[in-house]
Amino acid sequence: MGHLPGYSKDMVLFATAWKEVKRGNPFDVLGELLEVYSVEGSPAPIPLVGGAVGYFSYDLCHFIERLPTTAVDDLLLPECYLAFYDAVVAFDHREKKVYLATTGFPELEEGKRIKRAEERLKEIKDRILRSPPVPVVETSPAGEGIVLKSNFSREEYLSAVATAREYICAGDIFQVNLSQRFEADLPVPPYHLYQRLRLFTSSTPSLMRETCSPRLRSTRNGSPPIKE
Question: Which of 27, 33, 112, 153 has its CA 20 to 30 A from that of 3?
Answer without folding.
Answer: 112
